[in-house]
Amino acid sequence: MVKRTTLERLTTADLEKFISPDSRKVADAVEMAIAILKERGRIFSEEEDLELKAMVERKRAEEFVEPFPAHGTLLDTPYEDPITTDESAISLYSQRTILLFLCFVGMPFAIALQAYNFLKLHKTKAFFTVLLFGIILCILQYFLWVYYPLFDEWSGSDYIKRKSNILFIIPGIEAVGLVALWKKNLDPNFSYRSKNYLFPLLLSLAVLIVLYLTVGFIPGFSILNYLLHLIIQ
Predict the structure, then answer these.
(1) Is residue 193 classed as helix, strand or coil in its secondary structure?
(2) With contact defined as beta carbons under 8 Å apart, do 193 and 124 qualify?
(3) Contact 89/3 with Cβ under 8 angstroms?
(4) Contact, 218 vs 225, CB < 8 A?
């Protein structure tokens, strides 16, 4: 998603680069650059107009990612994040980053990153959907962990076997749900820059440390939580 306000801050010379034949900008950025240049008094000849329209159409065709496969379901085909290096594109946390947070940091943090993405895209319905989805799974994991009658032995291989359905099945459901929600709510020609994850990683680590010091070790919360337990104990 390209912000028009970002392009409006650029100089005319910079905008001219957007419409050059060797431009690597996305179609939306090129189209907005043309509109802004016209507003600034740039006059395009009929031949230039045709060339620019053809450029935009070509870029759209190259960028197009079918959001719903012709056959099967959303998760039947491999998914690739539509990440671009275009500086004018909006920056969001990539799905790879979110899935890594889910595996290593914890479900609540992965949900927070995905919710941030939808909030930044002004997709309010998707924002509340992903929050509700995450809350339900976190509550489900907690109650299964605390009240499921088989979970009364806490050592040896039997511990790993009996806890595996909580440690892997619930986060697995969340991973599938997060990707499906993301694919469902993406526009066909959408692309974005991958946002740096250092700040949320450090914030998550700080939260985990506070949780450990106040609540104690939470079995099955995340790999990072377990490593923290080994270091601090």
Answers:
(1) strand
(2) no
(3) no
(4) yes
Q: How high is the pLDDT of residue 112?
A: 92
Length of the chain equals: 233
Report residue 202 CA to chain centroid gap. Answer: 18
- In this structure, are residues 24 and 84 in contact, taking their beta carbons and an 8 Å threshold? no
The more confident residue out of 58 and 160 is 58
Which residues does 66 contact at the CB level (< 8 Å), separation at least 6? 188
Interatomic CA distance for residues 37 and 44, integer angstroms:
9
Q: Tokens at residue 109, please?
A: 């943090």
Closest CA to 187 of 60, 50, 102, 73: 60
Q: What are phi and psi of 223, to 5 degrees?
A: -65, -40
Structure tokens, 158: 């039997």
Q: How far apart are CA 83 and CA 61, in angstroms?
A: 16
Tens of pLDDT along 114-134? 999 999 988 999 999 999 998
**Confidence bin at 81 (pLDDT 50/70/90):** low
Question: What whole-number distance in Å separates Cα of residue 116 and Cα of residue 120?
Answer: 6
Average pLDDT score over residue span 98-117: 88
Burial class from Cβ neighbours inside 10 Å (0-12, 13-18, 19+) for residue 150 reads exposed
Within 10 angstroms of residue 60's Cβ, the number of other Cβ atoms is: 16
3-class DSSP state of 77: coil
